[in-house]
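It is worth pausing here to work through a concrete case rather than discussing structure prediction in the abstract. The textbook approach is simple: state the sequence, then state the predicted structure, then interpret. We follow exactly that order.
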Amino acid sequence: MEIRFRVLLLTPLLLSGCSTLAGVFGHRPAQQAPAQDSGTQGGSQGDSSGSTGQAGSSSGSGSGSESAPPGTGSGSAAPDDQGGNPPPVIEPQVERRQVTVPHIRSRDFEVGGYLGTLNIEDFGAHEVYGVQIGYHLSEDFFLQAEAGRSEGGRTSFEVLSNINLLTQGERWFKYYDASLGYNFLPGEVYLGTNHAMVSSLYLLAGVGATEFGGDQNFTVNFGAGYKLLPTDWMAVHVAVEDRVFNSDILGVEKLASNLEAHIGLTFFF
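Step two, the predicted structure:
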């Protein structure tokens, strides 16, 4: 019995010793098959990697062809934006209306008449009327000639003393003059929202002559006016002028001032 137990105990020891000696002398028959298997696996992996590389190159070429911008290919057409054709411009459909603004014409004649009141010094204020002719040198300067008449009344001395100093014919106040005018404040006047009229303030000064009381006197005239043009061929004037001359009708020589205010209508041609 003891011999059997000893044999059983020595058997594993012997087997482990044989395997150790086989490892020392390089006999590894069991590892050759795995080496072959690894070679086979390496080849298969190489083939698979090659195929993967080919697939990648093919996919890369495919993706490159897909990611290429339009118009680079031989069969693609270029867009119209690069062909020089701009996008269409939308024009607003707005109805244009013709606006005719009257203006003060230059190098044109102006003819008309006026009616107003003349205050003859010492002889009262009476109605005055006359005609005027103008010539526009430019939009700013113009020449104007006037001729008018009025009739003087009785002085306070004549009323109190019941004495007539002048005859009926000598009471006519007649004048004519030539003046230079200047439009210094041109502008516009609006009637409502659709109509505008040109307007202008002007100054004028000149010289002339006055017949009154049987005498003819050198006269200096000056004043200002407002001109309004409803159309480009017609003008409305409102003016104030003073006509100054030396007078000795009452026996004392003095500078007589005769203030006049009138409204007139003139026409351009």
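Step three, interpretation. Strands lie at 109-120, 124-136, 141-151, 172-191, 195-212, 215-231, 234-247, 254-268. The longest strand covers residues 172-191.
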